[in-house]
């Protein structure tokens, strides 16, 4: 006798035991048939036009990385050592060019510098705000002051996901950045589009293992729960939170197998682990995050975000720029390894990598040898997924205070990311509170010069 209990069999069994009335049975089975014929909320959707990228890996450096000391060299000569009356301070760390494309990168990122032929540096980025929380939320959602869905949620809503056994939007973060969960929230979009947070460690997602090892019993429990949930939802079709809760049960069940396998980097060979600066058995650190990002990308996750630090300690170096050194060392090799690994596996062309921070830092000295917040200009970079490698877009003035050409704001960046994913940012809308909302609001221009 076959003991595997499907949802449909569970419902019929409950009727036979007088748990459910026949009338309820017919409704639930009809709903079962209907739901099996309709697309799920995360079913892959066609883009507006042919996409250059299939997925995004978003790397976020919390705290405000100094553009002057990383990707936008400014000479420290001619009295710009911070000792003058104006306290102007040029680049603290030496710069060298990439040997193939000539893009200059500071000694903070020596291994990343070797990958510049695949990277487009944008030196003319303008922040959404000059305070951490507003700027971080603005970078993720396009709105520094009002709660809005995050970029990952919009892409989940617009494109769905290839692997139905994993969430469409995963955030790998040991600590939350400024702005907390708002940076991956879905806000007014259906809640199943919000990011699923993964915390590096022995158990990246808590409570993933089932309480029972009996698959038939678990199927019966889930079938009963789903039966009542669907019946409840039928009378409340506009309740997206309820629909999301039902979807979360389904995804959680599927992740019991897919999740542990995706996060188990010990299946990788020694050469790969070494490339990401990982020791066998390690399950923390940015190397682990980057390797997991590659594994999630392989498994069809649409949007993957890696957050390297939380609200403290981070890149917010007010007192001493040398605080940037250990932070850069922790991410330099893993990010370079991620780019090389994706390229070796022929995945870089279809994977858009975006590295960003919330704002830059002042060209003037603060504290002993630090810098203050600076939103007027800073640097980010993009690689893979339809991006021109080996180029620099935009320019700042001689001290790194203002943008002098090709300004890029957050809406432009978002419009470009959506474009590379095959989405017209003006057409990706959601009706809420009587109006159509979009990630770029009423702004945004695609940065055509950075697209291959």
UniProtKB/TrEMBL annotation:
Signal peptide extent: none
Pfam families: DUF1501
InterPro entries given in the database record: Alkaline_phosphatase_core_sf, DUF1501
Domain of life: Bacteria
The protein, known as: Sulfatase
Biological source species: Rubinisphaera italica
């Amino acid at each position: 006798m076959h003991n595997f209990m499907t949802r449909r069999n569970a419902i019929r069994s409950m009727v036979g035991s007088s748990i459910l009335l026949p009338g309820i049975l017919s409704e639930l089975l009809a709903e079962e048939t209907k739901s099996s014929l309709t697309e799920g909320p995360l079913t892959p959707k066609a883009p507006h036009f042919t996409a250059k990228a299939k997925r995004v890996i978003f790397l976020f450096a919390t705290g405000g990385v100094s553009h002057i000391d990383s990707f936008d060299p400014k000479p420290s000569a001619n009295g710009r050592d911070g000792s003058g009356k104006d306290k102007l301070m040029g680049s603290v760390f030496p710069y060298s060019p990439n040997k193939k494309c000539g893009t200059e990168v500071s000694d903070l990122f020596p291994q990343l510098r070797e990958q510049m032929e695949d990277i487009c540096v944008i030196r003319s980025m303008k922040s959404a705000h000059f305070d951490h929380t507003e700027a971080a939320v603005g970078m993720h959602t396009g709105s520094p002051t009002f709660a809005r869905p995050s970029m990952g949620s919009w892409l989940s809503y617009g494109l769905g996901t290839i692997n139905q056994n994993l969430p469409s939007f995963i955030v790998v973060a040991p600590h939350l950045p400024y702005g907390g969960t708002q940076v991956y929230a879905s806000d007014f979009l259906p809640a199943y589009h919000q990011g699923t947070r993964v915390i590096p460690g022995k158990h990246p997602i808590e409570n993933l293992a089932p309480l029972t090892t009996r698959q038939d019993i678990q199927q019966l429990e889930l079938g009963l729960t789903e039966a009542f949930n669907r019946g409840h939802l039928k009378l409340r079709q506009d309740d997206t939170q309820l629909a999301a809760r039902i979807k979360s049960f389904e995804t959680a069940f599927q992740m019991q197998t897919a999740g542990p396998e995706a996060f188990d980097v010990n299946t990788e060979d020694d050469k790969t682990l070494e490339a990401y600066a990982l020791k066998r058995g390690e399950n923390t650190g940015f190397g682990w995050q980057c390797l997991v990002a590659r594994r999630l990308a392989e498994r069809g996750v649409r949007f993957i975000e890696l957050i390297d630090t939380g609200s403290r300690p981070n890149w917010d170096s007010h007192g001493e720029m040398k605080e940037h050194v250990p932070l850069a060392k922790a991410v330099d090799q893993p990010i370079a390894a991620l780019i090389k690994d994706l390229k070796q596996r022929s995945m870089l062309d279809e994977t858009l990598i975006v590295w960003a921070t919330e704002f830059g830092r002042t060209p003037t000295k603060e504290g002993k040898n630090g810098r203050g917040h600076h939103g007027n200009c800073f640097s980010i970079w993009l690689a893979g997924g339809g991006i021109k490698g080996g180029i620099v877009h935009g320019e700042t003035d001689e001290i790194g205070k203002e943008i002098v050409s090709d300004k890029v704001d957050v809406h432009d960046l978002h419009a470009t990311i959506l474009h590379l994913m095959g989405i017209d940012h003006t057409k990706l809308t959601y009706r809420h509170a009587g109006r159509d909302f979009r990630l770029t609001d009423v702004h945004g221009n695609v940065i055509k010069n950075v697209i291959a």
